[in-house]
Amino acid sequence: MYFESDASLQHVEGRTVAVIGYGIQGKAFAANLRDSGVAVIVGNRDDEYRETAVADGFDTRSIGEAAAAGSVVILLIPDDAHPEVFESHIAPNLDDGDLFVLAHGFSIRYGRITPPPTADVVLLAPKMFGKPIRQHYTEGSGVLAFVDVIQDASGHALDRTLAIAKAMGFTRYGVMPVSHATETELDLFQEQFLTPLLLDAFRMAFEVLVEAGYERIPVLLDMHASGEMAEMMVEAASTGLYEVIEQQGSPTCRFGVQRYLGKLLGEDVRARGREILEEIRNGGFVAALGKEAAAGYPSLADYTAMYRASEVTRTHDGLRAALGTA
């Protein structure tokens, strides 16, 4: 692990960092870097995100202009846009010795972009989304990040990357060396196996209780909307999944957990997890994603329509109205 004492901002002194994309991650990256005294420009296409960057006081340019002006280029746009944007606007503007930073290893892992051999290429992947990255920074702490030096043309790629990590607040928590391939595969598995599993568990619990005659809003609150379960998971991140139940759960809670732990998910779920992981590793998921993107993501529209019409969502809308937060 790399911490504050392992990094120095001297390695980015006099350098301009181009943050490409001012969305969920880009906004946090740009703000944290600027507050750490790093010279930042934003590269973004002409849309509402560009307008926000300008309103936030950043020197905002086209993607190509920003990449040309920066000796450090951080790519923070959606994965599906990487190939076209990289080939058209970034690769022609990467000078010898420039540092090219990705926050997710997807495009390198699956060969969707090929950086020039004369540039440093690294992964710096925070294990948190934009809002908490910014919040933890302003509170004087930071979030965990993974780092991988993919290509070290200058001989100083790690030092310069750790300088960026320090400016982002990541070294306050810790920066762990993890290969870009591993980071990509773990991230995709979480998104395709663990997250749907959790969502389905909440939905199923809601449906079982409502079908049994319980009122919808108290059910929603007790299952997740009160935030109790979320707080438990936050605590578990530092304490441990089993330890948090031991430390925070009543004897009744602990008895209930141990009575059914390991009995609700069968080997069929484990087998499905292995199938999903294999599809991630062999490129099957990337092929499916490419077809979906080329068609304009029709399944996402179907998914949005489905969950908005669901009883869980309608109940949550009612809860927000009752609380005056709608």
TrEMBL record:
Protein's GO biological process: isoleucine biosynthetic process; L-valine biosynthetic process
Binding site for Mg(2+) 2: D187
Gene3D superfamilies linked to this entry: 6.10.240.10, NAD(P)-binding Rossmann-like Domain
Keywords: Amino-acid biosynthesis, Branched-chain amino acid biosynthesis, Isomerase, Magnesium, Metal-binding, Oxidoreductase
Biological pathway: Amino-acid biosynthesis; L-isoleucine biosynthesis; L-isoleucine from 2-oxobutanoate: step 2/4; Amino-acid biosynthesis; L-valine biosynthesis; L-valine from pyruvate: step 2/4
Entry-linked InterPro entries: 6-PGluconate_DH-like_C_sf, KARI, KARI_C, KARI_N, NAD(P)-bd_dom_sf
PROSITE patterns xrefs: KARI_C, KARI_N
Domain KARI N-terminal Rossmann: 1-178
GO molecular function, one term: isomerase activity
Domain KARI C-terminal knotted: 179-326
Residues the record lists as binding Mg(2+) 1: D187, E191
Pfam families, sorted: KARI_C (PF01450), KARI_N (PF07991)
Record-stated family: Belongs to the ketol-acid reductoisomerase family.
Family annotation (PANTHER family): KETOL-ACID REDUCTOISOMERASE, MITOCHONDRIAL
Name of the featured protein: Ketol-acid reductoisomerase type 1
Provenance organism: Saccharothrix syringae (Nocardiopsis syringae)
